[in-house]
Amino acid sequence: MTIHKQLDVICIGRIAVDLYGQQIGARLEDVKTFSKYLGGSSGNVAYGTAIQGLKSAMLARVGDEHNGRFLREELNRVGCNTDRLITDKQRLTGLVILGIKDEDTFPLIFYRDNCADMGLVPEDIDEDFIISSRAIAVTGTHLSHPQTCAAVLKALDIASRNGLRKILDIDYRPVLWGLTTLGDGATRFIKSDQVTQQLQKIVHHFDLIVGTEEEFHLAGGSTNTFTALKNVRQATLAALVCKRGPIGCAVFEGRIPNSWDKTRLYRGVQVEVLNVLGAGDAFMSGLLRGWLNNEGWEQACSYANACGALVVSRHGCAPAMPTKVELDYFLNHYKTVKRLDFNTHLNHLHRVTTRKQQWLELNVFAFDHRKQLAEMVQEACVDESKIPALKMLLLKAAEEVAQDAGLNSRIGILADTTYGQRALNSITGKGWWIGRPVEQPGSRPLRLEHGNIGSQLIDWPIEQVVKCLVFYHPQDSFEMRKEQDALLLDIWKGCNKSGHEFLLEVILPKSNPDHNEVYYLEILHHFYQLGIRPDWWKLPPLSAESWQVIGSLIEQQDPYCRGILLLGLDASEEELKDGFVAAAQAFWVKGFAVGRTIFGHPARQWLRNELDDGELVEKVKYNYLRLIDYWRVARN
Fold first, then answer.
1. What is the overall mean pLDDT for the chain?
2. Do 342 and 437 fall into the same domain?
3. Domain boundary at 319, 334, 353, which?
4. How far is residue 1's CA from residue 342's CA, in Å, rounded to a whole number?
5. Which residue in 326, 455, 615, 617 could disulfide with 322, CB within 3.0 to 4.6 Å?
6. Quick one: three-class SS letters along 396-446?
7. Measured over all CA atoms, what is the biggest interatomic distance in the chain, rounded to whole angstroms?
């Protein structure tokens, strides 16, 4: 009888924050900036198995601070269970600082003095939680300390009594066993009789043991791989998977042969190496997908080798791991993929299948206006310094609308840095959709307001969406189109590099009176042919027929597109209502991003001192709620 389990695998072991140096080729001493990722071998495997479609869980401790919350949120985001990711009030979350000097040199420093994940005790192991899973996966560092080892042994005992599968990743780091200096985190192998004896005492508990050749040398007490494997076999009946780097891996069930020529090699994928750190955790994630789903060693090792290959070509560990969709595509096309880091489709799949939040509908209040508000200020004969205060009041109105309408994950704003930096700072981190413009207002040909896109995005919170408005017409001169195309392509590449989402707003220019809406289909098709695949499009209201053909184009060119937001252009409410109705049945239209229709008249009154702050907020709220109601009525 098949017993349904809530979980597929519970990961027990290290979980920490990784700070990866961004300057590739620099000594760690010379690195200036770092990227923050989820890390730690067990944390990586919990994350990696979750995005491979397994129901994974993390059993560990994290600190009661920002890093601990970050790790919890990252795991939750990919569907990993954190019910037993315990918040430790006395210890800080572990930290690792890493660099990438060259393909053979990866300096790293572990900051793990009395860290939270090493605070695991047997009392943290809940029997009901363990038996809710089909398997537990343990990493070797937790065998290095009596307290954490006792917790692991308790989990293994429960697993054995209840028929769970048990997996060990040897995961040998000499520094974490106290065998080398604290700053020598990069050393992977130091012979130790003490560690060998500890592993020999515990390996009999496991059904699957995974390690590199050097790790099996340690576990078997010999630097001859086959002697070591035979010694391990004497202590356990587990299947042994030996990782052999870029050439692949070998699986040993039963008797150990005497040489590699008597052993089947499950071949790996040859790739350009950027960073080997985390490749073993990716390997384990892929292997567990196949092994726990009983797909056979051929398929399990294929998943494992491909996951490892993808990670060594990228920056970071957990964020570099492939999703199920991405891995399956790669395995079907790997013979034609020569350079993973340069393969645009594979990189796009990784980008779009690792997004942090879903947006099924959006009601966006756009007040990123700069030029128009400067004109309003001049008309009212008041100082420009009033605009930032106005934008904070507009944000206040939006927040009250979110509360009154129960929008939660369906609300957002568009705000600028010229006048709206305070508003951006105030709302960032609260789960809203946030767009931020980069174009110089009214520029044609397109110009960026604050210089090169790369120099801008390095300072942006990752959740803020890059919004760029371009005035574009297929009948523009070749020089105009070429210039604008080049800048838009640069913005798109910058977003790919930084990880920010991209919203491309397209408006036919007033300078050309031919505003036939069929041009929007032509423009979108042109941008797709350039290789630009925006996460979002922002377009004016169109006919139902145009939405149908544009929707077909998006499905063909980028089925992972987030969707389309309708723009307002200071249209009347009646005009927007008609536009909402025409778009109501268009799957790819996810909502609206409208500004002046909501705030234009009240803002002019406020600037002329005809409204006080509270009255402004109430009028803006009323207009915003009416638009939301129009959209909902049309959609339903």
1. 94
2. no
3. 353
4. 48
5. 326
6. HHHHHHHHHHCCHHHEEEECCCCCCHHHHHHHCCCCCEEEEECECCCCCCC
7. 91
CATH code of the domain covering residue 247: 3.40.1190.20
The token pair that represents 370 in the structure block: 């700069």
H-helix or E-strand spanning residue 632: helix 613-635
Beta bridge pairs of residue 539: 566
DSSP labels, 197-239: HHHHHHGGG-SEEEEEHHHHHHHHT-SSHHHHHHHHHHH---E
DSSP annotation of 569 reads T
Phi and psi at 317, nearest 5°, equal -110, -85
pLDDT digits (tens, 9 = 90+) for 298-341: 999 999 999 998 888 787 778 889 999 999 999 988 777 766 66
Count CA within 13 A, CB hemisphere, residue 525: 12
Residue identified by tokens 């770092």 is 34
Specify which residues 289 forms β-bridges with.
Answer: none
Query: What is the model's pLDDT at position 435?
Result: 98
Express each pLDDT in 251-286 by its tens digit: 999 999 999 999 999 998 777 776 677 789 999 999
Question: Mean pLDDT throughout 604-618?
Answer: 97
Are residues 312 and 425 both part of a single domain? no
pLDDT over threshold 80, residue 36? yes
